[in-house]
Amino acid sequence: MDKFRCNWCLKDDLYIKYHDEEWGVPVHDDLKMFEFLILETFQAGLSWHTILKKRENFRTTFHGFNPEAIASINEKGFEALMNNAGIIRNAAKIRGTICNAQEYLKIMEQGSFSDYLWSFTNGSTIVNNVTSLAEIKSTSKESDLMSKELKKKGFKFVGSTVCYAHMQATGMVNDHLINCHRFAELRS
Predict the structure, then answer these.
(1) Residue 68 belongs to what domain range?
(2) Quick one: average pLDDT of 19-40?
(3) Are 150 and 163 contacting, i.e. CB atoms less than 8 angstroms apart?
(4) CATH number of the domain within which 75 lies
(5) Is there a domain that residue 2 lies in?
(6) Concatenated DSSP letters for the chain?
(7) Number of domains in the chain
(8) How do residues 130-146 score in pLDDT, each as one tens digit?
(9) Is residue 119 included in any domain, yes or no?
(10) 168 contact partners, CB below 8 Å, separation of at least 6
(11) Structural domain contains residue 38
(12) Residue 1 falls within a domain, yes or no?
């Protein structure tokens, strides 16, 4: 018998694999947290499915999500990105990614990026006991604060909705439906 899953992921095998293996799994690796932030900022206004389909292109184009390499992208590199059909070719989001890499490096000079982001949930996963997709929020007081503080530091495309989606993806929030097999697996 097939396992019950959150119904948002039933579109195709790519979405199911992401749901079953990544979404909501607590991430404490600085670079992985940075990768998810880049992907979430590109997702703003688009579907996550679109981003997942282009994820490997993003990974290749942005040097394996290497923040030093991204932070040093010059105008020639920017133009190359704008001509790359494998990613989302949005000038503001590309420039925002370069800026966010620079800001990431500043945070890393003082400590861990992951620890910084997890501080908005006091280092613990927020478990929301939701029974339907309609109950899942798109923001929270924690994502509001994260957004405000990241913007103060100079980050771009980090509104509360983007921050909340990042929190969901990286396990800072467990928004799996309570009857989804991943809800209980991630609580143990």
Answers:
(1) 7-187
(2) 97
(3) yes
(4) 1.10.340.30
(5) no
(6) -PPP--GGGTT-HHHHHHHHHTTT-----HHHHHHHHHHHHHHTTS-HHHHHHHHHHHHHHTGGG-HHHHHT--HHHHHHHHT-TTS---HHHHHHHHHHHHHHHHHHHHS-HHHHHHGGGTTS-EE--BSSGGG--S--HHHHHHHHHHHHHT-SS--HHHHHHHHHHTTSEE-SBTTSHHHHHHH-
(7) 1
(8) 999 999 999 999 999 99
(9) yes
(10) 23, 24, 175
(11) yes
(12) no
Q: Which residue has the tokens 């991430």?
A: 27
Give the total residue count for the chain: 188
The token pair at 113 is 């990026």
Confidence check: pLDDT of 62 > 80: yes
pLDDT of 188 reads 64
The model carries a pTM of 0.95
- Residues belonging to the active site: 18, 40, 48
CA proximity to 136, closest of 186, 183, 89: 183
- The encoded tokens of residue 1 equal 């018998």
Residue 58 CB neighbours (<10 A): 21
Nearest to residue 9, comparing CAs of 21, 19, 1? 19
